[in-house]
Amino acid sequence: MEALKLIGVVIVIVGFILKRDTIATVVVAGVVTGLVAGMTVMDILNTLGRSFITQRTATLFVLTLPVIGISERYGLKDKAVDFIRGIKNATTGRIIALYQSIRTVAAAFSLRLGGHPQFVRPLINPMAQGAAVAKFGKIDEKTEDTIKGYSAAGENFGNFFAQNCFMGASGTLLIVSTLVEQGYEVNALQIATMSIPIAVVSVLVGWVHAILLDRKLAATYQGKEG
Amino acid sequence: MNNIIAEFFYCVIGVIFILVGLKALNDKTLATRITTALFWFILAFTFIAGPYLPHWVTGACVLIIAVLTAFKRVTQSKSDVPSEETTRSNANKLGYTVFIPALCLALVAVLAATFLPFGANNAIGISAAVALLVVFLITKAPAKSAVTDGSRLMDNVGPVGILPQLLAALGALFTAAGVGTVIANGVSAIIPEGMRIIAVAVYCIGMALFTIIMGNGFAAFSVITVGIGIPFLIMQGANPVVVGALGLTAGYCGTLLTPMAANFNIMPAALLETKNKYVIIKAQAPVAITMLFVHIVLMYILAF
Fold it and tell me: Where along the sequence do coiled-coil regions lie (chain A) (predicted)?
């Protein structure tokens, strides 16, 4: 029964869906897969130990934490807020697109801005809502929800598609570790470089998305500008 | 030589883990202080001593770590979190120069990887050292800040910080057990021989679908790369760098679409007090699908 070996994949899926502890789920999946495939306990421990040691690369990002931690204490987030507050004459879509662009650059330089709690709720969403109210007078609850959704989405786009441009990002290091383990000699600089095109595309797509939001708002509130 | 440098950096990481463990031990209010400290000490042990011991010892350590987290015996201890007043007044003093150390982190890493003979992995450690020097020069922070703020952030990241490493190790176990072959055999039925564009599409869409189910792009990456990416793309001549780099972000297209990725899509909706808890996913869907399409085209063009 070859297909039985997929039990590990099933365990990972079920474990994640049931919100079980992630580390335990991954380890159980590995051990069970090994047993099903007929490996001895000693084989499994040796394989697990050997690969855990060689994959330490994936945890190199820890070395960057003291610098980021100190920068935070000395006002990294406050200055980012200052910078975004400086935006003048912006529409809802432009505020969100600009935030996404800034977030993209920050992610590429491994700055941990803190995302939704630190930026989107206290700053980006109020600014985006404010721009709509300033332009159209009153907006309804549904529009408010849509703007909230777009504001949070801008954070996710910026965060996801640019983080691998940083050589020490955990995603970059995971890619390196996985490929090296399989016998392909790639390094973090190559992965980071090859991650740049998609980061650039994501900013362009984000701008189009945001401009379409501005158009949609204008169409909904046509003639009600005040 | 490069190996010695690498082992040195792994020892530094081990020391950071030990500091997080000590921080837990010193927090008398923490109910799980002993087990939390144990978690970080065992992890530090594998980083520092692991390479010189039989591999099964590290394997056993990983099992113990998993047991500790499974029973929720590893939690965050009390940290010296800077107050809003502190960061604000520091920010007013330093201005935008506060961004320089972080920029150093990224730029020095690239420069060191390109121009120094120590390898790209060691370049990350070198850039961390240079940036640490720069951050001290700019902020004039006391030396102990490296310890307090470094261990604070590591504790913040918590045990899931080792998840990428563990998932890569899982990929190795899956390969040893032949899981990749099973997936590859199943997938070979839908990929016609020699149709590279179909293979690229199956890999990218498979990555996104798997991420939608699991809510975690990292986990999808090791499974789908071993099962589809390597046999149908890389072994057919695709550039592994392109496949790897675009593979993970193709998975992130799935993250944007799934309520399983609660941290990104559901919790922020609660935070923003939206009426409909799926509005973020709704806003993201057109971009996610566009980006997935772009991934397929870009991977096909760049990889072959």
Answer: none
